[in-house]
Fold:
Amino acid sequence: MNVIECRGVTKKYKRKKAIHPLSFSIEENKVVGLIGRNGAGKTTLLKILAGFLKESSGEVNVFSKRPFNNLVVSANTIFIDDQMNFPSSFTLIDILQQGERFYENWDKELAHRLIAYFDLDAKQSHTNLSKGKKSTFNMIVGLAARCPLTIFDEPTTGMDASVRKDFYRALLKDTITYPRTIILSTHYLEEAEDILEEVLLIKEGEKYLHLPMDNLKERLVGLTGKIDIVYPWVINRDILHTRKIGQEEVFLALENNFTGNEKEKMKLSGIRISPVSANDACIYMTSEEKGSIDDVFNRE
Amino acid sequence: MSMFLMFFPVVFVLVLATVLVKKRPLNGKGDLWLFGGYAAVLLFSSALFFLIAGEDNGTDEEISAEIAEQEAQKLQAAAREGKDEDINKDYRKKQWTFEYEESQLSIETPDNSVNGTDILMERKEENDQVIEADYYQTPSSIEGKMAEPARNPSIQQTETALIIRNPEEDRLEYSAFKEEFPFNQGSEKINVFENSSLVLGSTLIYLRVPKDLNVNMDSYQVQYVNE
Amino acid sequence: MYLTGNNAAKIIWQQYLFKMKAYVSVFSSLVIIQLLGILLSFSGTASRGTSAYGMNINITYYSADMVIVFTSIWGFICALLLTTTAYREDGFHFVTNRISSNLSSVAFLFTASIAGGITAVFSGFLLKVLVYYILADEILGTGAAADPLTFARGMATAVLIIFFISSFGYLAGMMAQWYRWFAFILPAALMGLLIVQGAGEGTILQVFYRFFFEEASTFLFFSKMIGSACIIFAAAMFLSNQLEVKK
Structure:
């Protein structure tokens, strides 16, 4: 069963188009990473799914209902980001109590154990938390709510490395026990790699790729070798990334659709073939076609 | 200008309310304590108020508005018919008698045109060369409270005239409690004072002059009785 | 994971409880506003003077009229602030939609109006007790409602007036959210109306005042207050439907 179905969804802000026609669907109980560069439309898409924003055209279905202004969707969805404003008079414990009242599946015990583990002061006001602590607390709310659809928009903003690790670990453990659909947008794909089952890559408001995590890891291949030896192999192929290594060698990243035979021949001619990590693959695929940051500095 | 003065407190309250609600100077518990404490103070003061009001009620109405009105009318009616004997002697605050042997008299009332009193004059049936003057005053009812000015007018005799001067003004300050405007909703009382009562008493100077005395006077100020 | 059931009435109730807790500061601001009103009422809310032969009478009247007016302004501000983005979003982290959010706000405002109306009327007693003990003048007239029924009716009137005024705040706030410039246009229009027409006979304000506040029948007055407040809140909800839920 598909929890989310989008067909030709667009979103326009005044003049600017934030989302071009976008179509995809997400199955129940999948943990999906939403990847894209800043301004690619990730947050806009997530807010449409959460029912906060109204799509400009197209069809969005969450739990087979249009999410905008829908009580059923709202009751079964939680949207966590670093902009959550709780009333400033609320202490953390107050917020947890409200969450318990609103969400039927709320796991009070989990919330309190996580609060204790992350050393948060339950009597502190939410407004006074540091950025990292705020993110940590919001994440706890997101986990404890146990909503059938849980959306995290950049949940790890401001967290330090060990907390980020703990967060993903907690997410993994909890989703194993209580499976649910989770959409998570992040800049640090590497850290989330282990828990993501699928990746939805968007670029300039359009769907670029939607594929299982394992496929993403094998999607690209890296070729390293002398320029004149490597280039004949990549004629008529999309080179996603180029980097000079030393004076003569070059590193190229491109889609891994070489045959086994071709790879053998490349190896024989001295080209080193390396896998490209999911994180790098995403960076290469979403970067502007013409060059990379290096080109800015390598002008002659 | 007055409109802007009127707006000033309104604007001030607007700003204050906004700041207080937005800034949230207290945490949730403090807010509740403040409100709860205030509610308790209000309850206590309402109990106290009814205690005070209950105490006052016994001596509350010294003179009702109706009685003050009636007494004032009775005084005027009796005086104008020349039946000054019918007037309640309690209301006679001062009496004068002047020996006067001339045949001409002027009555001067230099300050009676504003907030003045009625001056009535009756000719006696004899020429006894005596001018008599009485000053009468009925009490005013101010929210049920009896009020009378403490000072009387003065009458001064010169060779050819009587000079009647107003008493010095007695300043009476009162405080009164009023119902709040929602309590008058629907009673068509547009004027806020309509449910409050203020009835002024009546005052009168009654002159009796010898039969054939020739009197010069301003007929707006002094009127003959029975003529 | 199963979908949780939902019941609109239950969610409105939860949102209402949430708002009662979240916006509890409106109640402390109410206390401050009313205390200020009481303080300013010490010089009397009305006075009447008259001169007669030999005396000059001046009566100063004390009542909580100013407190009630201040409380109405407070109700207006509370409603206005509830519609601002920050406040609207506060509630949107939890389960809600437009209708439940608006209805719970209206319920909250009604509760605030009840608290405001009752305390405003009772603040009259506090004022009068203070005047009695501090100013120690002789006091004429108790100014207490004659009977419990009149008292209850007066209190209900105060509550409804505050609720009615707050509905204007809610609508004005939504209008300003819907179209930014209304934040300037609305006060300017009101001021303009006052300056051009004054507050005299036959003006729009006068007609408005006549229609609502000179209604002789209690039943009709209550109906007008509640009915108009409902219409105004409904208009505000209609406008809020044109807004995004959360930006």
In short: Chain C has a mean pLDDT of 85. Chain C has one domain: 8-45+56-178+215-242. The first helix of chain C runs from residue 8 to 22. The two ends of chain C are 29 Å apart (CA to CA).
